[in-house]
């Protein structure tokens, strides 16, 4: 099993969720996050340099079987229109174990 995390524009989440569901990945977790860095510009206001504020982004997390990882990442890249400036990111983690919250039992990872 693999855990995929993607940081992207909030407006892209709904389309991505529908696309992932269409290939058999119906469950995702979405978190609103703030990011800073890479905006590429410093503004000057009344002679004082000001850094731009944090940008609101969406963090999408999804757990997939190993054999679906490449297709899920490709779909996320395509759907999210990955930003060439580096603001959008996809990170893939190996999953060792998954434990059910309600039952406390392990799920095959």
**CATH topology category name:** Alpha-Beta Plaits
Query: How many strand elements?
Result: 8
Low-confidence stretches: none
Tally of contiguous helical segments: 2
CATH architectural grouping: 2-Layer Sandwich
Give the termini distance in whole angstroms: 5 Å
How much helical structure, as a percent, in the residues? 10-25%
CATH C-level class is: Alpha Beta
Word description of this protein:
The chain has 109 residues and is an alpha+beta fold. It has helices at 13-22, 69-80, and strands at 2-8, 29-35, 43-45, 48-50, 55-64, 89-94, 98-99, 106-107. The strands form 3 sheets. The protein has a 4-stranded antiparallel β-sheet, covered by helices on one side. Strands 3-4 form a two-stranded antiparallel ribbon. A two-stranded antiparallel ribbon has the order 7-8. α1 (13-22) packs antiparallel against α2. The model has no long low-confidence stretch (mean pLDDT 84).
């Amino acid at each position: 099993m693999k855990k995929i995390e993607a940081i992207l524009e909030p407006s892209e989440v709904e389309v991505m969720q529908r696309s992932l569901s269409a290939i058999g990945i119906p469950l995702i977790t979405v978190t609103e996050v703030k990011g800073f860095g890479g905006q590429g510009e410093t503004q000057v206001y009344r002679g004082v340099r000001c850094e731009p504020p944090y940008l609101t982004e969406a963090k999408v997390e999804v757990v997939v079987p190993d054999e679906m990882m490449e297709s899920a990442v490709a779909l996320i890249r395509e759907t999210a229109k990955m930003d060439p400036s580096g603001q959008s990111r996809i990170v893939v983690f190996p999953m060792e174990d998954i434990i059910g919250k309600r039952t406390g039992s392990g799920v095959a990872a």
